[in-house]
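F.,

This is the one I mentioned.
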């Protein structure tokens, strides 16, 4: 099978020298990609940090079955995924990248006479005038402002573009990370999320390490460690491929 895997984070540019990102480097995505390769599949890994795979391992992977492509921003990943899905006849998409939910659409400072009340969380202008914000967008934002405010707007969910916009009909695996939920809540959220994105499988996990894969045989299976996650996920994907085609060679 031809397997597309995403892993890592995306950066959100503030100006030409500053950005917002997250802590995820993409080790899980890289390990999934390597496991898929070891099982005989053609793998295309989109990674924000290729160094999560040791250089000597990368150098030993033959280009006829392995492709590593680096991305940085949301737009980079969006275009790389679209191109791979639409042009490369991908059979499986495993989307584990931690994609930025928001992008910066403006950088502002309080204009003269405008101030912010932390207690009431409101802006006020001088003598009852409307509050005003001054645009401070620049190639490099100056550092002499006492406060800077970012306007951030929501990015589209890349996972939700895969079926309707890029017309992918293969096996789709979604990752869903939650914080502050118990096992029951996690699985409820995961199943709703999977259905919403028309994914075949979802890997549901928490910051504390609770991890499930499902639905497998109509239920979610708890993973005891990362190694089990890799092998169980790929085995389940292969079984789905065989079930849909009726051919064992479809899973290789």
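My design for it:
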């Amino acid at each position: 099978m031809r397997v597309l895997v995403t892993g890592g984070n995306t950066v959100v540019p503030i100006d030409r020298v500053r950005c917002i990102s997250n802590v995820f480097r993409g080790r899980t995505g890289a390990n999934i990609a390597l496991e898929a390769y070891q099982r005989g599949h053609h793998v295309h890994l989109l990674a924000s940090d290729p160094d999560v795979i040791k250089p000597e391992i990368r150098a030993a992977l033959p280009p006829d079955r392995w492709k590593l492509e680096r991305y940085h921003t949301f737009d980079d990943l969006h275009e790389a995924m679209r191109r791979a899905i639409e042009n490369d006849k991908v059979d499986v998409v495993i989307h584990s990248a931690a994609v930025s939910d928001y992008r910066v659409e403006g950088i502002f400072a309080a204009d003269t006479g405008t101030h912010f009340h932390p207690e009431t969380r409101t802006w006020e202008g001088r003598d009852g005038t409307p509050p005003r914000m001054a645009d401070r967008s620049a190639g490099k934002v100056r550092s002499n402002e006492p406060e800077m405010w970012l306007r951030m707007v929501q990015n589209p969910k890349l996972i939700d573009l895969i079926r309707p916009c890029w017309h992918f009909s293969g096996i789709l695996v979604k990752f869903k990370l939650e914080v502050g939920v118990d096992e029951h809540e996690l699985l409820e959220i995961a199943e709703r999320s999977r259905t919403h994105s028309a994914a075949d499988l979802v890997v549901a996990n928490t910051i504390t390490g609770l991890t499930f894969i499902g639905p497998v045989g109509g239920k979610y299976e708890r993973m005891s460690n990362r190694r089990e996650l890799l092998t169980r996920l790929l085995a389940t994907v292969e079984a789905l491929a065989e079930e849909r085609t009726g051919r064992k060679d479809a899973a290789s």
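The chain has a mean pLDDT of 93.

Talk soon.
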